[in-house]
């Protein structure tokens, strides 16, 4: 089934959020598109007061630079009030104070805790129908990430995902060819072994992986909690395979684990950005926004892929904007969401170096053109792989992820074997999950 440009439902790669009649058999050709459907009513010129809570924690200056100023220009009759979330000014404290909230800017990881558990979730299917949202433009895996049990609660503003950064200076020092897009894990690991060496008093490490990021965006879409039984779901052959290949094998190069044991820590951002002894680093995109990236010659390649998952990258990890169930301006909120995922605005974000959520080629090709890293061939690295399907997320997944990360660090330090790490994580996770239920 193919969706026409006039279809207003959302059908994703793994979630069918809503399907509307008349979609089947349609094409993207204008001559085949329905012509009898009236244009949706616009609320853009009607007055509205929209309070936006920034759960992500961006300052108002950052919010305005990325989104707010453009929204005020687009909707001059809307009054926007932005509230910055922080440790002292939480969403819960604002709810308790009776603060009106119409839109919430939040990350995927906090969607369950902040949106759903607070009762702010609002299924967008009706609004998408009346506003005739064109879903054929979207990267649907990214939209599916903001769905829960088949209901879409927000629109992603820009995407994230795992990539492989590399330090060209290290490759040049040792006369090794740079990594290529589309590499398999075995190829990247072999390349890493060539670059793991001790020279000039420095222990160079070939390939490092941010453990938590690899786990939370894993290409196999493995969840940490089995929502059916509420138990930890990590002591499985699937997790064992994921961890063995992408997290443990890169550290088996001669001298690698000995170095980590000597400094008593696993790979962190500083190894790549500041210490500059790490040749390749698998990490969430946007690390290059750190000022330390200006101090060395870096490159970027696509996330290595598993042999049984050819062409599949990491899961999407977008920031989104959610219309709350309590808002009195839901149609106006949808006008805001529509604009933020329009080609015009997505082009602005793309040029600034934020991964767009639309498939429009011109928008993607303009990526990072207004940045200092416009010549880094990032577009190829970002789009060599297709996104993995979003996994089923639990509000309590951190109760399993935390001990898993700690136990895997012990495996890397040769203090524990993987089977023991997974078994203990299961036990620790289940105990924490049981305590969370009792609270």
TrEMBL record:
It comes from the Bacteria. Coiled coil: none annotated. It holds the Pfam family SBP_bac_1. Keywords: Cell membrane, Lipoprotein, Membrane, Palmitate, Signal. The keyword DNA-binding does not apply. This is Extracellular solute-binding protein. It comes from Paenibacillus oceani.
